[in-house]
Structure formats: C-alpha cells, structure tokens
Amino acid sequence: MTDSGQPSPRSAPVWVVSGMSGAGKATALAALARAGVDTVDNLPAPLLDAFVGLPRERVAAVVVDSRHADGLRALDRAPGASVLFLDARDEVLLRRLSEATHPHPAAGAGSLPAAVAAEREVLGSLRSIADVVIDTSDLSPEDLGRRVVEAVEPPSSPDGSAAMVCTVSSFGFKYGPPVEADWVVDARFLRNPFWEPELRPLTGLDRAVHDFVWDQPAAREFVERLSALLTWTLERAADAGRSRLHLAVGCTGGRHRSVVLASAIAARLGEEGIPVVLRHRDVERPDPR
After folding, report:
1. One domain, residues 209 and 96
2. How confident is the model at residue 222 (pLDDT cuts 50, 70, 90)?
C-alpha cells in the first residue's frame, strides 16, 4: 500500500535469462535491449532478490549464469521473476565453443566436453524452474532474437490485457522432440502422406496434404479432443499462476501430418480467444527423396 492508502502499482515484470555457454545469451540480451527491455548482464545470483524487488516501469531482463556457480547450485526458485533458459545440443555447443576466444566458465573441469557437462550440472536447478526453455541448436541469430522477445513480451488477449499464451508447434520425431515443449503428442497413427508419391514433396501447408490428412476422421477427432483438453488445462494453469504452455505435435518427419494438426489446433484455440504462437520446426527440412 502507498502512504495514501491506495494499492501500490505493480512493478513491470523481471526475466532471469540464463543457459548454457554457447547457447546464445549475448544474442538474446542484445535483441531484448533493441526491443526496449532494460537489460543487465552477469548479475551475481546472491543479488537477484534485491534486483527483482526494485520498482520499475519497464520490463527488465538480467543474465545470471555459471560464472557464479555456488549461488546457482542453491537456487531452487526465483520469487517475483520469470526464468528463460537457453539450451542447445551438446554437439552444437561444442562446435560453437571451439570458435570462442574467451575461456569457458567451467574450464577447470578439464576438456571442453567435460566443461559442458560440468556447466549442465551447475545450471540444472535453474533449468528445472524455467518458465520458458528455448533450444537454439537450429536457430539463426535473427530467429533466436524473435523467439526471446516473443517470450518476454508475448501477445495480449483481445482486450489488450496480459493473458495465458499457448505455443503450438509441429516437429519430426526423427529429429527429436523439442526440449522446450510441456506436452508432446504423437500423430503417427494417422496415414502418412509421405507414402503418396504426388504428396511426398509437398508439406502440410499445401492444400492437397491438408485434405489428405483432414479427410481421416481420426484426425478431426484428434484435434477436437486435444483442443478441448488443452483449453481446459490452460484455464486451470492460468488460475495457478502459469502464463505459458507449449504443445508439440509430432509425426515422423515433421513435414506433413503434424503441420496440418498443429495448424488446426492453433486455429481452434484462436477462435476461443486464446493468444497462440504457431511454429513448424521441421517443415522446411529438405525433401528426403
């Protein structure tokens, strides 16, 4: 309360940005700064509570990483802040780090693979409490910047207020499920357009593939049942203070069935007034013929 007895104005949100060395924290922080977010790099973990408690009028983002290992190992929550964690596959991190000119924060572990493993252990507790995890393995710097800004300043509900945001994505199981997904569902039970010669080079964004998938009654029932369950879950999650949920729909290659279904689910949620972000992770992968 203020001295006048009026409720204190809510401070703008704070995001803790963390993640593996080589996963793109510098790129993320630069993108947030360009978007008008107040940014701070390399804040010691013991100062996090004090930083979060400061009054502010703009969204703030602060990088907390493995350079302060002792404070991070004990961090099991970030009161008053949301956590965004950047990750990547080990082979991608090793390739990126091999070109770095500065020493790895966990270089004392020995070899570069040992340093990556040691850093994963240090950051394990912080990753476990992350509100958003972004796998940067296959993202360009521009795509990473957009994803981070989208996470920190998500779409608003139709009335302009902040709302629960749902990400719906498609992917191919042959390339692995998205590490950032909260739900992973399998659409491989449907007939596969890949085995139709005229459909194989197309994707779920093409009308012919859409019709092939959508003409299967099980596909329509899948979308109906999953959309209803997802809507119910989003309402319960919002009541519990969650602000985001990521559903990933997978098929074999991520180019046909999952694209059609993810698009249909996103459209259904949009009709319910739920802010939705739709992504197709593997749709642009080359035709495997």
Report:
1. no
2. very high
How far apart are alpha carbons 155 and 164 in whole angstroms? Answer: 9
Q: In this structure, is the dihedral angle defined by the CA atoms of residues 171, 172, 175 and 178, taken in order, positive or negative?
A: positive
Residues whose CB is less than 8 angstroms from the CB of residue 58 and which lie 6 or more positions away in sequence, other chains included: 12, 36, 37, 38
Q: Averaged over 121-148, what is the pLDDT?
A: 89
In whole angstroms, give the CA distance from residue 245 to residue 127.
16
User: Total domain count for the chain?
Assistant: 2
Statement to judge: residues 252 and 130 lie in one domain: no
pTM to 2 decimals?
0.72
Q: Could you tell me which residue, 288 or 227, shows the higher pLDDT?
A: 227
Q: For residues 192 and 31, give the distance between their C-alpha atoms in angstroms, rounded to a whole number.
A: 39
pLDDT band for position 257 (cuts 50, 70, 90): very high
In a domain, 4, yes or no: no
Distance from C-alpha of 84 to C-alpha of 245, rounded to nearest angstrom: 13
Same domain, 105 and 231: no
Q: Is 123 helix (H, G, I), strand (E, B) or coil?
A: helix
Q: What is the pLDDT, as a whole number, of residue 287?
A: 64
Q: If 0-12 CB within 10 Å is exposed, 13-18 middle and 19+ buried, where does residue 166 land?
A: buried
Backbone angles phi, psi at 234, to 5 degrees: -60, -40
